[in-house]
Amino acid sequence: MDFSPTHSLSKTSPSFYPFSLSLKPNALKLLRVQPNFASQSRIFLRKPSLSRQKNPVIRATSSSNPAQNDGFVLEDVPHLTDFLPDLQSYPNPLQKRQAYVMFKKNFVTPEDVVAQNIVIQKDSPRGVHFRRAGPQEKVYFKSDEVRACIVTCGGLCPGINTVIREIVCGLNYMYGVEDILGIEEGYRGFYSKNTLKLSPKVVNDIHKRGGTFLRTSRGGHDTQKIVDNIQDREINQVYIIGGDGTQKGAARIYEEVKKRGLQVAVAGIPKTIDNDIAVIDKSFGFDTAVEEAQRAINAAHVEVESVENGVGIVKLMGRYSGFIAMYATLASRDVDCCLIPESSFYLEGKGGLFDFIEERLKENGHLVIVLAEGAGQEYVAADVHAANEKDASGNRLLLDVGPWLSQKIKDHFTQDRKMAVNMKYIDPTYMIRAIPSIASDNIYCTLLAHSAVHGAMAGYTGFTVGPVNSKHAYIPIARVTEKTNTVQLTDRMWARLLASTNQPSFLTSNDLTQEITVDKETFPLDFFFHFLRPQPPSSSSRATSPASSSSIDFWCNQTPHPDPCKQYFVSRTQRFRPKDDSEFTRLLVQLAMDQAQFMHKQAHEYGPKCVTKNQKCVFTDCLKLYDNTIFHLNQTLQTLNNNNESSFSLLLDAQTWLSAALTNIETCRSGAAELISGGEVFSAADDEASDGVRKMISNVLAVNHGMILRTQGEIESENARLEGNGDGFPMWFPRHERRLLRSNSGIVKANIVVAKDGSGHFTTVQAAIDAAAKRRVKTRFVIRVKRGIYEENIEVDKNNVNLMIVGDGMRVTIITSSKSTQDGLTTYSSATAGIDGPRFIARDITFRNTAGPQKGQAVALRSASDLSVFYRCGIEGYQDTLMAHAQRQFYRNCKISGTVDFIFGNAAVVLQNCLILARKPLDGQANMITAQGRGDPFQNSGISIINSQIRADPEFRPVARKFQTYLGRPWQQYARVVVMKTYIESLVSPLGWSPWGNSNFAQDTLYFGEYENTGPGSSTKGRVSWPGFHVITSPKEAEQFTVGSLLAGRTWLPSTGVPFTSGI
C-alpha cells in the first residue's frame, strides 16, 4: 500500500476496473456452477466399467464424437479406501450361506449400477447412475471387530422401529455382529452418552409399536463432539435415521471422520413422512400415511354428508411437498379439492376457492377439502402478521392453516354471501405420525435397513440408501439433501388429480405456459421452482396473497442496496415470493454468482487485448480473483441449501466466504487502480458491473447476518467447540494434526521431501506443491523442506487443500523472492508465497521478501487460506509484509517484521504469542503496523493481536526515536484492529493510531481497541480521541476479540482455528 492517502479504495482512489463492460441484467442467463461436493464423485465413462481399482475417480470431459461417448455418468459414493488406501478386505461371511453359494448373482459387483432415468428419448444420453445396493463378495470389517450404533433424529414417522429392528437383525443374522448400540434421544445422545445395548431379542417386536424405540430429538448437532464420542467408544459403523436436516448432519459427520482418518462407515437411512427426499422413489412411512389418511377423509365425508352445506377440511402432513395430500386424494373419490404447497391458491374472484366451493355446494350439498399443512402459509402469515420462527432443527414453524382457512370460508359465506355453512375440521397429523407402519412399509424398511448394512460392511461411507426406479442404490448424501422433492405441477400425476376432483388449477394459461416451457438446461436452478407462485387471474380478484412485486419490495427494502436488488429480481421474473429470509438469501447468492460468472467470462474475452505488462498482470489477478469469488459463492449456496438455518457454525462459514468474495472484488479493483492508467486499453472501464456484484454480496452479508443474530442460542456451545482442549490447540484440529504441530520437523512423517542438495524428491518447493495438487485423496499431505534458502515464488491454489509445509526451523529454512510493485506487479501478485488452499499449515519456516524499502509494496506472505495455521514461522519484509487477505487465519509464535502497513488485509486473523518487529523505514516515512481492509459493516473480519510483543528491530532501535511508529491506520471504512495483553515498546507513538493521510477518513466507523497492554508504549492517556477508538475495560468486551470469537459485538462468531487457552 502506498503511504499516501490516495491509496484508500473506498474514499479517495478512483474506482478503476480493467474491463469495459455494460451489464444488462436481463441479458444474463441463470447459470449455476455445480458445487464440488466432497462426498460426491462424478465419473464420465464410455462403458460402465466401474471397478474402483481399475478406474480412478476422475472428472473427464465428454468426447466430441457422440459415437464414442453415450453420456454415462456415475455419481459415486465415498469408500473407506479413498482415504485409507491400505485398508484390508475380507471374504464376505455370506459366502458361506447356502443361498449365496448356489446363486452368485445374489452378490452385487462393483460393475452393477442403477439408472436414475429410465424414460428417455431415443437419442438421449444415458445420464446419471448410482451404485446398486446389496451384499458384495468382499467386506472391509471383521464381524467380531464391528461396533455399530444406531441413532434416530427429528419427528416421528411410521416404520422407524422397523428400520432399527432390521439393522440389528441384519448385522447379527447376516454378518454375525453382536456389538450394537442404540443412541437415545437423537444427536444429543452422543453427548449425554445415553445408550442401549441392542440385540435381536431386545428389538424383536418393536416394529409393532409406533414412534421410535430409541426416542428422538431435534437439533443438538455438534459434529466435533459426536465424532469425539464415536472415537472414544471405538464405534466403526454409524447408522443414522432421519430426514433432510439429519442427513445433512450425517454428511458433516462423514466429513469429520474422513478428516481424522478414521475407519468409520457412516450410513444414512432417509426418514421423512412427507416423501420430500430427492432422488429416491419414496420415503418410508409414506404408504402408511396415505393409508391412514383415508380414515380421516372418510370421517370428514360422513360428517359433511350428514348436514346441510357441509364443508370438511382434512389437514395432512406436507411442509414443502404435497405428496401425501395428493395421493390420499387420488386414493379417495370423496375429495373435492386438494391444496398443496406447490400450487398456490387464491380465495376470492373468478376461479377462486370460494367460487369453487359455492358451485360444488349447489351441485352436491357438501364437499371435502384435503389441505397439506404447508399450503397457503404466506397468506396466513400476511393475515395474522406472524413472525418467522424456527424449530430446533431450523425448519420454519408452520402456522396452522386449517383453522385459518375454516374461518375464512365461514366468514365469506355467512357474512358476504349470507349463506349458512357447516364447517368440519379434522387434523389427524400427529395420530398418523405415531402409528406403526403397515405391511408394505415394513417390507420397504427391511430392504432399506439391509441395504445400509451391506453398504457399510462393504466399506462404503457418506452414503444414503433408497430405491431408484425400484432398484435400491447407494446415493451420495449431498444428492438427497441438495434440494427438496416436490410435486411437479406439470407432471401427469397432478393432472390426474385435477381430472379426478375437477377442481380449479388456480393457474392462468400464461402461468402454465411458463411452467412448461422453461428450459432447465439454461435455467438449472431447481430450487428456484420451489419459489415460483402463480398469481390470481385478474387484477380485480381480491386475493389474500400480496402481489409478487410487493413481496420482492418487502425483502429488498431490508437490504443495504434495495434498488439493484429489485432491479435484478424484476428483470428475471415477477413471480418470486420468498417465504423467509433463508430462501431470500439463497436467491441473492445466486444472483451475485450470475454476475460474477458474467464478469469472469468478460475477463476471458478481454485477455487477448492486454498488451502491456501492467495490463497482463491485472488481467491475471482479476481472472483468478473472480474465479475464487465464484468458488466462495458456490460454497455459500451449497451451505445455505443444506443448512435450513439449523447450524449456527454453518451460517458463520457462509459469512466468512461471502466476506472473502467481496474482498476478492475489491482486490481486483485495487490492482487496477495501482497499475492501469486512464489512457490504456481499459480506458472505457465501467464500474457498473463490478458494483452490481459488490452490492449483491453486500446484501447477502446483511441478510445472512440477520439469520446469525436469530441463532445466537448456539453461541455458547460453538465457543466451547472452538476453544482449546487443554493442550493449546482448538477442538476442530484432529488429534494427528496436533501431533504434527507439536513434533520436531525431523520426526515428521512427510509425504514429500524438498532439498536443495538433491537428497529429497524435489529441489524446489513449488514442484512439491504441484505434485501434491495431483493427489486424488485430499487428506493431510506433508511436505518437508530441508534447511536452505529457496529463491522462488510459491502458489498453493484453492483446490490444493490440507497441505502442510514443514521446515527445519524459521532461521534455517527460508523461501525468498524480491518481487514488488516497482516491477510492474500488483501488491497481490508481488507475494513470495501465495496461499489459497483451505486448511493450510506452515511450521518452522520463513517467508521473506528482499525487495527492500525503496521498492514499495512487496509482500512476503499472502494468505486467503480458510482455517489456516502458521506456527513458528518468520514473515520478513518491509512495506506490506503480511497480506492476510481473506478468511480465517491463525498465527502462533511467529516473527513478523516490516515498516509500512506490514500486517494488512481483510482476513479474520489472530496473532497470538507473536514477535512483531518494526524495521527502519525510508526517510520521511512512518511505520504502520496494521492496515485493516474491512469495507462492509457485515464482513466478519478483523486483526486481533493477543499476548504478543511489539518491539523495534535491533537494527532500527538506535534510530527509532527519529521515526513515528503507529499501531495502525484505517485502510477501509470499517477497519477493525485490537491489541490486547501485548507488550508495547516505547517506539509506538503516544497517539497510538494514525489517520489515513491528513483526513478524518473512517474515524467514526472503524473499531480500534486496546486492552490491558503493558510496556512503555502501552499507555492510552495520550491516544487519539476518535469515536471509533476504544480503551477496552470490560473483560466481556475484550472476550469478543479472542481466538474463540473474533467479532465486533455479540453478532459474529467466526471460528478462527487457533491454539489458545480459553478466556482472555
Automatic annotation (TrEMBL):
Gene Ontology process terms (BP): cell wall modification; fructose 6-phosphate metabolic process; pectin catabolic process
One Gene Ontology cellular component term attached to this UniProt record is: cytoplasm
* E.C. number(s) listed in UniProt: 2.7.1.11
How its function is modulated: the record gives: Allosterically activated by AMP.
Record keywords: Allosteric enzyme, Aspartyl esterase, ATP-binding, Cell wall, Cytoplasm, Glycolysis, Hydrolase, Kinase, Magnesium, Metal-binding, Nucleotide-binding, Secreted, Transferase
The residues listed in the UniProt record as binding ATP, with positions renumbered to this chain, are: 155, 218-219, 243-246
Domain of life according to the entry: Eukaryota
Q: Which residues form the Pectinesterase inhibitor domain?
A: 547-703
Q: Where does substrate bind?
A: 272-274, 317-319, 373, 430-433
Residues given in the record as Mg(2+) binding sites: 244
Subcellular compartments: Cytoplasm; Secreted, Cell wall
Q: Which cofactor does it need?
A: Mg(2+)
The record, for Pfam families, names: Pectinesterase, PFK, PMEI
The reaction(s) catalysed by this protein are: beta-D-fructose 6-phosphate + ATP = beta-D-fructose 1,6-bisphosphate + ADP + H(+)
Tell me yes or no: is Kinase among this UniProt entry's keywords. Answer: yes
Q: Which residues are annotated as active site?
A: 274, 901
Looking up InterPro entries in the UniProt record yields: ATP_PFK, Invertase/methylesterase_inhib, Pectin_lyas_fold, Pectin_lyase_fold/virulence, Pectinesterase_Asp_AS, Pectinesterase_cat, Pectinesterase_inhib_dom, PFKA
Please name the pathway. Answer: Carbohydrate degradation; glycolysis; D-glyceraldehyde 3-phosphate and glycerone phosphate from D-glucose: step 3/4; Glycan metabolism; pectin degradation; 2-dehydro-3-deoxy-D-gluconate from pectin: step 1/5
Any idea which GO molecular function terms this record carries? Answer: 6-phosphofructokinase activity; ATP binding; enzyme inhibitor activity; metal ion binding; pectinesterase activity
Q: How does it assemble?
A: Homotetramer.
Its job: Catalyzes the phosphorylation of D-fructose 6-phosphate to fructose 1,6-bisphosphate by ATP, the first committing step of glycolysis.
Member of which family?
In the N-terminal section; belongs to the PMEI family.
What is the name listed in the Swiss-Prot or TrEMBL entry for this protein? ATP-dependent 6-phosphofructokinase
| The species this protein was found in | Senna tora
Source taxonomy lineage? Eukaryota, Viridiplantae, Streptophyta, Embryophyta, Tracheophyta
